[in-house]
Specification:
β3 and β4 form a beta hairpin. By secondary structure, the protein is an all-beta fold. The chain has one domain. The protein is globular. It has strands at about 10, 20-25, 35-40, 45-50, 55-60.
Length: about 60
């Protein structure tokens, strides 16, 4: 289905917060066939959304 797996940190390719992948599955008919349910926090409020896997990339933190 995809190279993104549960537990990985990802971001939307166009930008946004770092999110954790909670589930990768076929979410039709309510969502995308190749989807990833992602969770993150907006301040202290937990958020959740299903994204097309193709819209996501694995987050690589900067190291010094």
């Amino acid at each position: 289905m995809s190279n993104i797996t549960i537990g990985e940190c990802v971001v939307v390719k166009s930008g946004g917060p770092v999110m954790t992948v909670e589930e990768v599955d076929d979410f039709t008919p309510q969502g995308p066939e190749n989807g990833a349910r992602c969770v993150w926090f907006d301040e202290n409020k937990p958020m959740e959304r299903i994204f097309e896997v193709q819209a996501l990339k694995v987050h690589v933190p900067l190291t010094f």
